[in-house]
Specification:
Elements lengths: L10 H6 L4 E4 L19 E9 L4 E7 L6 H8 L6 E3 L2 H6 L17 E5 L8 E4 L5 E5 L1 H7 L4 E3 L7
Parallel strand pairs: 2-6, 3-5, 5-8
Antiparallel strand pairs: 1-7, 2-3, 2-4, 6-7
């Protein structure tokens, strides 16, 4: 992958002029393949992509070992749970991403990022870089600088 072949999602980090590091590795498309990245799973963030019934795209970033609580994501977006639909490969392509490499950043100003609040407490995040063969290392501060409209929410805690 040359610089000109890098996923379009990375343009958001370049545009924000934040520091980040790219890590190339064998394709890692799911949890069982995460070890192929060689990165610290305990500071990884997985990003799930959705489309709302009104057509807007949503990126939900949570700790790599956690499970998303869909009602909490819906509440953070002030929509019903039924309004959340998995993003299609075509939607991801329009965002400069591929399945298995969803990033928590994009240049599309209409995309909503919902970030699990606990991720902001980590010193570094490893997250998707737009393709299954590429991960990005950056600080939570850099991510929030690149995505200043991000919604911080508790997305993973069990219901009380």
């Amino acid at each position: 992958m040359t610089t000109t072949e890098l996923p379009g999602a990375l343009a958001a980090l370049r545009a924000a002029e934040v520091e980040f590091k790219l890590h190339r590795h064998p394709p890692a498309r799911n949890f069982d393949e995460l070890h192929l990245t060689g990165l610290d799973v305990s500071t990884s963030a997985k990003t799930l992509a959705f489309t709302l019934t009104d057509g807007r795209s949503v990126l939900a970033a949570i700790p790599g070992l956690a499970k998303l609580r869909y009602p909490k994501l819906a509440a953070a977006l002030a929509v019903s749970r039924s309004a959340l639909r998995p993003a299609t490969p075509e939607t991801l392509a329009a965002l400069g991403m591929a399945p298995g490499g969803v990033a928590p950043f994009t240049t599309d100003p209409e995309v909503l990022l919902v970030l699990e609040r606990s991720l902001t407490e980590l010193p570094v995040l490893y997250c998707g870089g737009g393709s299954p063969e590429l991960s990005v290392e950056l600080s939570p501060t850099a991510l929030l600088q690149a995505m200043p409209a991000a919604i911080l929410a508790d997305l993973c805690a069990e219901e009380a």
